């Protein structure tokens, strides 16, 4: 299996509860390495741009409002089959459906405040990484 990269966001519900280290620990224990990380306050424009794929969905406004409600930690993760590995450790979007030992089972407050975002494909990982990071910020 090839070493690849994926993108991750530790969302405002998790940063508000000071869970950045605990989430990162679970990612690392799953075999992912953080090769770039920064804590940011996402602007409305950033959130709307990042989630533009959902613009026509009824939850778009609430999603944007949530993502700008507090700091987030954006990260580039590296590891074997990184997208799949990250999605496996994140767990199901709805924490009620998430497996034991996953981030969302352990930390999510609700389906909306589910603590983490992760890329769903290698193609989207590249797009999402480039949205928040310059190549010189990724050191691994």
Structure description:
- Keywords: ATP-binding, Cytoplasm, Kinase, Magnesium, Metal-binding, Nucleotide metabolism, Nucleotide-binding, Phosphoprotein, Transferase.
- It is found in: Cytoplasm.
- Residues 3-140 form the Nucleoside diphosphate kinase-like domain.
- Helix content is 39%, strand content 20%.
- The two termini are 18 Å apart.
- It is globular and about 40 Å long.
- The protein is of the alpha+beta class and 140 residues long.
- It contains seven helices and four strands, in the order βααβααβααβα.
- The protein has a four-stranded antiparallel beta sheet, sandwiched between helices.
Principal-axes geometry comes out as: globular
Mean pLDDT across the residues is 97
Largest sheet: 4 strands, antiparallel
The helix content, as a percent range, equals 25-40%
What is the total tally of β strands? 4
How much of the sequence lies in strands comes to: 15-25%
Radius of gyration equals 14 Å
Poorly predicted segments: none
Widest beta sheet: strand line-up: 2-3-1-4
Number of helices: 7
């Amino acid at each position: 299996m090839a070493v690849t990269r994926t993108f991750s966001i530790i969302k405002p519900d998790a940063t508000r509860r000071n869970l950045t280290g605990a989430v990162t620990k679970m990612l690392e224990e799953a075999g992912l390495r953080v090769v770039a990380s920064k804590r940011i306050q996402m602007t409305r424009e950033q959130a709307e741009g990042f989630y533009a794929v959902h613009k026509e969905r009824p939850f778009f406004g609430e999603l944007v409002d949530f993502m700008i409600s507090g700091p987030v930690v954006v990260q580039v993760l590296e590891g074997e089959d990184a997208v799949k590995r990250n999605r496996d450790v994140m767990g199901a979007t709805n924490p009620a459906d998430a497996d034991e030992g996953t981030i969302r089972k352990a930390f999510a407050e609700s389906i909306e405040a589910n603590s983490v975002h992760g890329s769903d494909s290698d193609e989207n990982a590249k797009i999402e990484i480039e949205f928040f990071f310059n190549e010189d910020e990724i050191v691994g």
